Amino acid sequence: MAGNAYSFKANPQQVEKIIHFYDYCKVTANNPNILFRAATNAFTIQIYTNYTVLIQGSKAVNEYAIWQKMEDGFAHMGSDEVGTGDYFGPIVVACCLVQEADYPFLNQLGVKDSKQLDDKKIRLLAPLLMKRLKAKVSILSNTKYNQIYHSDHFNLNVIKSYLHNFLIAKLKEETKFEGPIIIDQFCDEELYFKYLKDYKATNVIRDVSFYIKAENQFMAVACASIIARYEFLKRMDQMSVELKRPLLKGASNEVDQLAIAIAKEHGLEYLKKYVKYNFANTKKVLKALQ
């Protein structure tokens, strides 16, 4: 390996995994000796017909580290968020560090993406993960979210970018971790860093990698997903007690009807404390209040 180029010899099983893994960014390879080629702004990966894998680019070292240790599990940091598609409840972002020694414990627990687990399982697993792993959580209340969105005119992806970077920087500083950092991709990498610049974020961590559905591929992201979902559920529980009625997740018609009922009983300003006011659901609430 030299500079920002890394290579290794893969076996047929690894080649199959790599091709599947990078299917989302595959490109045409105009070379008969290249079996597969994928490219992003941060790296390119080529698999030759002799099963040599060549990785190049500014983030090549992260991809190389992943595939050198993918079989046995590798140390990495991961972050994920929940609540961004829910009218009720806060936005929660979690970031955690998984070390190689954590894998037997996590595999025994059956850790997977939180969306594949029911709420009961989330409430069981998350406290165990938070006790075992180094993790950071940020909870953006509805009141603060509405203030940022409407006063500062930042969209949801700007807010998410800031929260991810903020937690990654804090955990990286605390743990002194220098390995791969994975974010479940919610926007292009170029936009992510533009959003951080727009937000005037400080201590921007640039050595991060973005993957679609990362929670299905990286243990740390799966753990972060579970922890974030757990904290979201706790806040939903608290809000349900305050409102004396169970709140619903999502942004469905049933959610509309619940929001309308709350607004009619307590007023629109009261409802704002519990919802993301920019969501389309609000238009239906306003129409019902006319």
UniProtKB/TrEMBL annotation:
It comes from the Bacteria. It catalyses: Endonucleolytic cleavage to 5'-phosphomonoester. The lineage of its organism: Bacteria, Bacillati, Bacillota, Bacillota incertae sedis, Candidatus Caccosoma. Belongs to the RNase HII family. RnhC subfamily. One of its GO terms (biological process) is DNA replication, removal of RNA primer. Its main location: cytoplasm. The keyword Cytoplasm applies. Its EC number is 3.1.26.4. One of its GO terms (molecular function) is RNA binding. CDD domains: RNase_HII_bacteria_HIII_like. It comes from Candidatus Caccosoma faecigallinarum. Keywords: Cytoplasm, Endonuclease, Hydrolase, Magnesium, Metal-binding, Nuclease. It holds the Pfam family RNase_HII. NCBIfam families: rnhC (TIGR00716). This is Ribonuclease HIII.
